[in-house]
Amino acid sequence: MTSTRTRSLRAGRSPRTSRSHGWLSLTGLFVLGASLAWGLVIFLWSLAAHTGPPDPGSPTSPGTGTPSSTATARTVTAAPAIPGANVQLAAEAEDELAARPMATAAPAASQPQPVVAVETAAPLPIPAPADPATALPTGFPRTPEGAVGQLAAIDAAAFRDLHPATVADVHAQASLPGAVPMIEWTPNVGVTAILRAIGQPKGSSSITATWTLTHAQVKGVLGGGDFVLACVLGELDATYRSTARAGVGDCQRMVWQDGRWHIGPGAQPAFAPSTWPGSADCVRAGWQEARNA
Fold first, then answer.
1. In 3D, which of 270, 129, 248, 231 has the Cα closest to residue 188?
2. What letter does residue 264 receive in the DSSP assignment?
3. What's the mean pLDDT in 203-219?
4. Residues 37, 41, 47: CA angle, nearest 5 degrees
5. Domain extents in the chain
6. Could you give the percent of the chain with pLDDT greater than 90?
7. CA separation for the pair 115, 249 (Å, rounded)
8. pLDDT for 111-160, tens place per residue?
9. What does the angle CA 122 – CA 264 – CA 147 come to, to the nearest 5 degrees?
10. Which of 13, 5, 257, 283 is closest to 142 using CA atoms?
């Protein structure tokens, strides 16, 4: 899988109606005097409920391609791609894996809550990047755990200051042609929602934020290991006049190309359950503790 992947997004993606309505209903409650804490709560509740803000200036924009679902699914490993299968069949297999629903969690599951004493799933060993001294660390190995590590580095970089320019720069560095558009990308949806709630749509130097990996899942592997549907869960801490904390999950198609992992072509995968790291909800959603390898 060393050739450039420029497959376009597919038609038939679900509308953003539920995302828009969920955002608008919550904003109606908190729009006056909203702080960062309220903005973060709005985003996390809407993300956990599979809703979100409408696209700025484009209320009829297409959705993420991932319909909200009440079906429950645990982490699975997809069968390897059949040798010699054509690109179309490979793309269909990737789409099927990406669209397969994840476990669901109530909106309140993302909020701080007690941590369980013992987690039932085995920890995932996450390797360190070979090139960590950059704004977007790279150099993760060609393994499923390496794909998880790269996605975690991408999300941590995108959320580091809750600034639109940062999100755009990280998306450009991390994505291959045909990947989920930035306007539909989970970090951008979150940053946009928070900034609009606090009345700072262009960002602010007064905002500080960190997203730290705590848990992960490998939903499936295809293409002889060059395609990994990776999911990460991290704690997002943000401060602007007040501080808010919550668990934020993300799933992306990770593709190995040109010696590193990228966010690959195709629509946004099924939403990852956003739960408070280490909580009972986190365990029920199938998250595995992420540990340094």
1. 248
2. P
3. 95
4. 145
5. 17-292
6. 53
7. 17
8. 899 999 887 889 999 999 999 989 999 999 999 999 999 999 999 999 99
9. 25
10. 257
